[in-house]
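Researcher: Structure for this, please.
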Amino acid sequence: MVSIPEQKLLVLTDGKPSAVYPVSTSRYGTGDREGSYATPLGHLCVRAKIGGGFPPGSVFHSRKPTGEVIPPNAPGRDPIVTRILWLDGLEPHNRNAFSRCIYIHGTPREALIGRPASYGCIRMRSSDIIRLYELVGPGARVEIINSPLPVF
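Model: Predicted structure, token format:
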């Protein structure tokens, strides 16, 4: 579960909280319109996992490793790094998520984690996306909400 206002991702295991990670969602708000750069709300699932076994900071372009590895907070570009969880919308209002290539992924711009800074995706620190990648499988449910995380 991802909270837009809190910029946090909560992992539930058997219905109980097992981890919380800071994230960065879209700087352009929420929505699912093509070309909007917004983060879609609602129920989604992990349709594909990409990047297992690559070193932290591995750069991916069009979901393919480039061979380049960059450290956290490296100046310059802002590529997708480390791991990719490709999301697919399960509701009419988020049906474009897969074709828009909305991911949960690593970012080298870790200093921006905790505030909206992405172009629609959910960004995480490399160390955190590696842990999340190991926890979830294809088909894992992801709920993106525009409210605080529930209290358990």
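Researcher: Any notable elements?
Model: The chain has a mean pLDDT of 97. The chain has one domain: 2-143.
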